Known about the structure:
By secondary structure, the chain is of the alpha+beta class.
Amino acid sequence: NWYNKNAQEPYKSEMQFFANCSGVPLGGIVAINLVYDMTAFCTSIVAEDANGVIMHGRNLDYAELPLLRNATMVAHFTDNTGDILYSTTTFFGYSGMWTGVRPNAFSISADERDQGDVVANIRAIEDDWYPASW
């Protein structure tokens, strides 16, 4: 199957861990990890105000996918003292990230690619392709 053939480490182990801990079937966790690449929504913008302050905004425009809307969360990654090293907006069960922020340092996001449609993207996955965020 696709998962056994194409899922790479550390993502493969992370998806299995999510499935084991959450009770969500592995197939559901794998689907969460593929749905963005199948549909490719979301956009980002970077702007600078009159004072030179740079702002980075991201919208998650997947209104047609209530599964993702209801599974969206903010995750903070901390050091052993509890200080936030970086944060991400992600989906429950998702291995990897599309948006990241290191406080007072930088932010990064990946967005839609305007290639193909959902059917073409699903066919690409079947043809030994793997998610862009990996």
